[in-house]
Design brief:
Strand content: 15-25%
Keywords: Phosphoprotein
InterPro entries: CheY-like_superfamily (IPR011006), Sig_transdc_resp-reg_receiver (IPR001789)
Modified residues (4-aspartylphosphate): 188
Domain Response regulatory: 138-261
Organism: Hydrogenophaga bisanensis
Strand order of the largest sheet: 2-1-3-4-5
Shape: elongated
């Protein structure tokens, strides 16, 4: 079957949420079906999108209550006040993996040979799902704040991590590690309250199967080569499995997760 593309019209949402959604669209290019934003009037776009994704708290949302949906179009509503004809209703913070699952369900139902079948899949499906991939993976971010923390959390959610916890420093991280089992941990080596090396050693003892990555601006291309080389050597000699550069790059993170999920 040819590679399928499903178009989604996006109404409302914050800049951060749209950034995360665009990341989902870009990563889905490697899947079938792929998802893309629907833009009215652009050449090559269908007359109407298959999916209408609406921020219920936006000013434009009120029109969705009174407009009749085109035949075959599905409405996914985020927030309170959903109309009766909404196909799915999601709450904030948005779980992007769950959203992707709902989109996959819509597409599968549309292609069902026996006519329209309303599939209801409740388990999130990772963007890079592979046979035997662990379910209910949980991630932990130690140290990063602001945009870095938000981007990493969004990308991990899009990659299939059911929950992503955050800790500002070592003490808080140790408490979380004692209560939860983490499949992936990102340690901000630059953060003043984070002892990344000690935390990596702790995780090696308590969660040997976890993917543990360091994060540092000194791993980036603008850092002097000798400083970057020294940091990489320290990471290689530690229990960490890799190093991410700041500013964070979803491609680098995605490749690390892919290698971890496909050992050997």
């Amino acid at each position: 079957m040819d590679h399928q593309r499903v178009f989604v019209k996006v109404v409302g949402f914050t800049d951060v949420e749209r950034h995360a959604l665009n990341t989902v669209f870009r990563l889905s290019e490697h899947r079938d079906p792929a998802y893309a934003p629907w833009i009215e009037g652009v050449q090559g776009m269908p007359a109407a999108p298959e999916i209408l994704l609406v921020d219920g708290e936006s000013a434009e949302a009120v029109l969705t209550h009174v407009r009749e949906l085109p035949a075959g179009q599905r409405l996914i509503w985020v927030g309170p006040g959903a109309p009766a004809h909404a196909w799915r209703v999601l709450s904030r913070p948005i779980q992007w993996a769950i959203l992707l699952t709902d989109l996959d369900a819509m597409f599968a139902a549309r292609l069902a040979d026996s006519g329209y079948v309303d599939l209801d899949i409740s388990t999130p499906v990772p963007l890079d799902a592979t046979a035997g991939a662990p379910r209910h993976e949980r991630g932990l971010l130690v140290g990063p704040d602001g945009p870095d923390r938000q981007r990493l959390a969004d990308w991990l959610g899009a990659a299939g991590f059911e929950s992503v916890d955050t800790a500002p420093g070592t003490d808080e991280a140790v408490a979380l590690i004692g209560r939860q089992t983490y499949a992936m941990v990102i340690l901000d080596i630059d953060a003043p309250l984070v002892d990344a090396w000690s935390l990596a050693a702790l995780l090696a003892r308590t969660a040997p199967d976890a993917l543990v990555l360091g994060l540092s601006e000194h791993a980036g291309p603008l850092t002097a080569w000798w400083r970057r080389r020294r940091l990489i050597r320290h990471v290689d000699n530690s229990p960490m499995q890799g190093l991410l550069a700041r500013p964070v790059d979803q491609t680098q993170l995605r490749e690390a997760i892919s290698r971890w999920r496909r050992p050997g």
